[in-house]
Write a structure and sequence with these properties.
The protein has 544 residues and is an alpha/beta fold. It has helices at residues 7-18, 38-53, 72-84, 99-111, 122-128, 146-158, 207-218, 233-242, 266-274, 289-295, 299-308, 321-334, 483-486; strands at 25-28, 57-62, 92-94, 115-118, 167-170, 185-189, 203-205, 222-226, 250-254, 257-259, 316-318, 336-338, 340-341, 344-349, 357-363, 373-379, 381-385, 406-409, 414-422, 428-436, 453-454, 457-458, 463-470, 492-499, 511-514, 518-522, 531-537. The structure holds adenosine-5'-triphosphate and magnesium ion.
């Protein structure tokens, strides 16, 4: 699937045509403070696909200028996710690689009289900042001499001050209608060990200062980010201009992607993980790329979903159903269709010889002969889904098994239910049925019409399986409500049942259609004595 025409692609085409740029260079700049989520996939797909279309390239640059929250385990996880999506960054870089150059450029601004060391506390700075309707008040330190600023900044770097005691600020305009231009902070003091630079630095540049410098150094032509950076663009351009960067990158903003009933904020995802409300970042209910991967989503389904949402300058919310649709479209023909009984009910075929098993040749996917075929077993003992039996036929629409009714066991024979066995509590534990040898599937039998066609698994050859069945993790999309209250208590259900023996040698992330039950993938925790499957989604949208 090619990226459709969108406003950024148009800008790139125009810039190439006018000669403003010679090629397209983009970057994806995640902060390594959590795992990536499906919202990030929009930024990844957009950056990589656009650059690729113009024969350009994309750098992966870790925005690691805030050491408080960053960690190298996240660096590795992010690399893995991007790689899984099928993208290869031209260079893998770190914002911290540029700390030296960024520091030199800060010195340059001080020498040009465009930056000063400020003593205001964070609280005071906020008070001095003014509001959208009132101009800010200038810092008492705004007119420090260049020499004093150089000396103090040097001391900041040397570790002579505590966290928050001083900052380096740009000297721009305290009455600018854009709050970001009211002498923004360029550097702050943080005494903490950085995952990359260790204890070399105790002053760290702010995103708004570091990012444009990094883009300029790397020769990025189109610096794409989400819409909330819109009113930072003027500062981005100011930094590039005042630092006299030889290459001039430009920032363009696109709308963020939101999905119904889905958390799209690293902060909240981190909260879920850190408070053990989920089983880790790759919990199959999580909207992280690692979670979606474990859930069984394919990279194609994710890419097609992202491309299908288009790209504009408005934040958009799409239904989580769209991602499922993308997966069904892809897997319908691609994967094997096999039998699994998730909630088993034992059926004894009383007129079938004891100890005998017959094998029936069945295609893996009748719509895709390339997938070949396997043999499914039939014998005196089989399992069907509990929900496929009701003692009495409730109405004419009931096309499943009832006492006295006859159904086809898919690909095998007609069976008729004669008797139900109950336990002491009145639960149905076993059905006694008879089969009609005349009715073998494929034999051309046309005598009667069965009351339905249900799947089954033969008991002696079946493999034990656990089926993880999911509902949305969140019950609503109201991000203002408390996270814990929004958690769906039924988001993880477990079925214990059987799959046909053709799945004996399944491996993690192999995908199947379980006939009538949905698309499933084999979980990492699957073992040969008990297989484990995650339901990716049901066969049909439950939406209608
Ligand atoms: P979050 O808000 O979830 O914490 P973030 O934007 O702080 O995410 P970054 O690591 O800074 O996370 O994101 C890297 C890039 O991904 C940024 O350019 C950001 O604009 C983009 N991005 C993040 N979330 C989305 C989203 N939902 N839709 C589109 N782009 C996104
Ligand atoms: Mg961010």
């Amino acid at each position: 699937m090619e990226i459709e025409s969108n406003f950024i692609k148009k800008i790139m085409e125009d810039d190439l045509e006018s000669g403003k740029v010679k090629g397209i260079i983009t970057r994806f700049p995640p902060e390594p403070n959590a795992y990536l989520h499906i919202g990030h996939a929009r930024a990844i797909v957009t950056n990589f696909e656009l650059a690729k279309q113009f024969d350009g390239y994309t750098n992966l640059r870790f925005d690691d200028t805030n050491p408080v929250k960053e960690d190298s385990s996240f660096v590795e996880a992010i690399k893995e996710d991007i790689n899984w999506l099928g993208y290869e960054p031209k260079n893998i870089l770190f914002g911290s690689d540029y700390f030296g150059q960024t520091y030199d450029l800060a010195l340059k601004l001080i020498k040009k009289g465009l930056a000063y060391v400020c003593d205001l506390s964070q609280d005071d700075m906020r008070k001095y900042r003014g509001t959208l309707t009132e101009p800010g008040i200038e810092s008492p330190n705004r007119n420090r001499s260049i020499d004093e600023n150089l000396k103090l900044f040097e001391e900041m770097k040397a570790g002579n001050f505590e966290d928050g005691e001083k900052t380096l600020r740009a000297k721009i305009d305290m009455s600018s209608p854009n709050m970001n231009m009211r002498d923004p902070v360029l550097y702050r003091i943080i005494h903490i060990t950085h995952h990359n630079t260790g204890d070399k630095w105790c002053i760290y540049p702010m995103y708004d200062f570091a990012h444009p410098i990094q883009d300029a150094i790397e020769g990025v032509t189109h610096s794409l980010c989400s819409l909330e950076y819109d009113d930072h663009r003027i500062l981005y351009d100011w930094v590039v201009e005042k630092c006299e960067m030889p290459h001039v990158p430009h920032q363009y903003e696109f709308g963020r992607l939101n999905i119904t009933n889905t958390i799209m904020s690293k902060r909240y995802l981190k909260q879920l993980v850190d408070n053990n409300l989920v089983k880790g970042y790759d919990d199959p209910r999580m909207p992280t790329l690692a979670g979606l991967r474990r859930r069984g989503y394919t990279k194609e389904s994710i890419k097609n979903f992202i491309l299908g949402t288009g790209l504009s300058r408005i934040n958009s919310t799409v239904s989580s159903e769209m991602l499922e649709t993308s997966l069904r479209d892809e897997l319908n023909f691609k994967v094997k269709r096999v039998n699994a009984v998730i909630d088993p009910l034992k059926v004894v075929i009383t007129n079938y010889p004891e100890g005998q098993v017959e094998w029936i040749d069945v295609p893996f996917n009748p719509e895709n002969p390339d997938l070949g075929s396997r043999k499914i077993a039939f014998s005196r003992n089989v399992f069907i889904e509990k929900e496929d039996f009701l003692p009495e036929k409730p109405n004419k629409k009931w096309k499943r098994l009832s006492i006295g009714e006859e159904v086809r066991l898919m690909y095998a024979y007609f069976v008729k239910c004669n008797e139900v066995k109950y336990d002491d509590f009145g639960n149905i534990v076993e059905l006694q049925c008879t089969y009609d040898p005349e009715t073998k599937s494929g034999s051309g039998f046309e005598g009667r019409k069965p009351n339905g066609n249900i799947h089954y698994v033969e008991a002696s050859t079946a493999k034990k399986a656990i089926f993880n069945l999911f509902e949305p993790l969140m019950i609503d999309s109201d991000s203002k409500r408390d996270l814990v209250e929004r958690l769906n208590p039924n988001s993880w259900n477990e079925g214990k049942g059987f799959v046909e023996n053709a799945l004996e040698n399944t491996y993690p992330l192999e995908r199947f259609q379980f006939i009538r039950k949905g698309y499933f993938t084999t979980d990492y925790d699957s073992k040969s004595d008990v297989l484990v499957f995650n339901r990716i989604c049901e066969l049909k949208s439950s939406f209608n």
